[in-house]
Structures are given as C-alpha cells and as structure tokens.
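Q: I'm writing up a methods section and want to include an example of the input and output format. Could you take the sequence below and give the corresponding predicted structure tokens, formatted cleanly so I can copy it straight into the document?
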Amino acid sequence: MGARGGGAASTGGALGEPDAIRAAGRRPRLSHGGAVGLMVVVTLMWATAGVVTRHLEQARSFEVTFWRSLFTLLSLLVILPLWQGRAVFAKMRRGGPSLWISGICWGVMFTAFMVALTLTRVADVLVTMALGPLLTALAARIFIGQRLPPRTWAAIVVGGLGIGWMFVGQVGEGLLLGTLVALLVPLATACNWTVTQHAHAQGRDVDLVPAVLIGAAISALVALPLARPFSANVHDLGLLAFLGLFQLAIPCVFSVWCAGVLKAPEVALLGLLEVVFGIGFAWAGAGEAPEASVMTGGVLVIGALVANELLGMRDRRGLPPQVPAGPH
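A: Here is the clean output for your methods example:
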C-alpha cells in the first residue's frame, strides 16, 4: 500500500505476497482484469499527494503531516468496521508487538513522506521512495539470510547509483535534506517487511489495514506539537481531508483487495505507475518539471526495478510472503 507515504511493491523477485493481505477483509473476489484496473486507479489516487500539496495556501511542514494523518485516521475508523466488522478493534488489541511495530513503521512513512514533499520536489521524493523494493530485498538478505539472485544484486547496485546521481545533482540547491528525509520511507518499508515476515514465520500474520490506522494515529500525535500554531485555512483543510480519505485511506483498502488477486510481480510493476503519474501530475498541475539529474536517476531506479521483476517472473512460485511498500 500510497504515500508510498506510498505504492505496493515486492522485493524485486526475492519475495511473494503475505497471507495477511489475502486474509484481510473478505470482500467479493475481483477478477484478474478488475484487480489490474483497480490497482491502476489506486496508483492514480496515491499519485495525487504531490500536486495537491503544491496547491496548499498556508499549511506547511508538520502541520500538513498532522492534518493528513488525522483525516486518514478518522476515515479508517469508519472504513475498518465496514471492511472487517466491529470485531476488528478487539483484534487490534490482541495484535501483539508486531502489529504495533508495523504501525510505527507506517507512522514513519506517513510523516517522512509529507515532510519531504514540503522540502524538495515531488519527483525527488517519488524516485527515492521507489528504492523500497530493493532495500526490502537487502533487508531480507541481512536479517533473515534470504539468498538474492544476481539480478537483484545488480538491481540494488543500479538503483543505488541512480539515487547517488540525484544526490550529486542536488548539492548546492538546498534540496538534499528533503531527499534524505524521503529516504526514511523505503527504510521504514524494509523494517516493516522484516517485522511482519518474522511474525509470519511464528504463525502470527500482521493485518495491514489496522496497522495503517495505528500508523496514522502515531503520525498525527508526533506531528501535533510540531504543527502548532496552526495556520491552515478552510481551503487547505479541504485539500488535506482529500489526501487523508482519497489519497491514502481508500486506496489503502483497495490495494489490500487487489493484492489478494494479483501476483507479486504484477503488484510491483503496477505500483511503479505511482512514480510516473505523480511526476506527471506535479508537472502538469503545478508546473514542477523534474530536473535532468532526477530524470536520469529515475530511469536508473525504475529501469532496475522493472528489469528485475520481468526477469524474475518465472521464479516466483513457492516463495515466502512479502509486505507491500504501501501507502505513504
């Protein structure tokens, strides 16, 4: 689950989907074509964060984070009982440490994503977040000893070169801090996967949608003291409510539904559309054209991810579960 803080992704062929995703919210099953179409809609919804943020009039930095997270929290408090029944809140209390650690990871993603958008260009943030699947694969190798195929190691190297190229291009522009903050999103994604994979190995799957609710609550609480004094006007609150409901809460639920039908490489490749759509929206809707260094770095990162997924499609059977990068 966007924003990706963000979009669903796999570890570039190292991992598969979590049972928790497939078990969450037993809605009528989508057809494959329906799931593909809905996942495209999800990436479009995730991708609106950058351009909407650029049209805020007074709200800035942590206030943007606070209101967006608060509206996400309020939205999920309504959606969750409809999706999973009223017993979902009782299940959350029995979720154990893994659920709450996952919630903290989501909170980091939400906070870092929105703060980064206020510090640097939309394209910089989205391309940096696209590293999520590669960092997750690296975490799988380091923390659980999962072997990675040579193509994934190559993708990690190429993706790292792409981000490094972006960093070099930002030196002296005052934008590097925003990209470094955005880097917290894929790092939190990798941490989230490690925690949920450990729980899965012990027979305790983490339900992702309640974890997102916890993350929204944590993000709002952390941002609150830093957001004051509030300056958002009615116009800003309307846009931030849109982000909370339509850019994060609703696509979060839809992406969980899609992940019960689509295979890991399909989710990963479709999730990359968020980067393309997000940059396009910011360019067309806010006049924020990506710099040459970002375009070059983005081509390296996205190209490495796509190549890794396509080359690994034949090796996906019988692999352990994976958590999507997710919303941000």
